[in-house]
Amino acid sequence: MPSAKPPEFDGSVFKLAPHECQACVSEYLSLCEHMCQLHGFKTDDDTTEKYSYHLTWVDWIQTGLRDHAFQLWQRIDSHECAKMKWSQFKTWVESNFLSKLAFNKAITLILTLKQLRSVHDYTYQFNGILYSLDNAINDKAICTYFQNGLKPSLRSRPELDVINDLARL
Question: Closest Cα partner for 72 from 107, 38, 48, 96?
Answer without folding.
Answer: 96
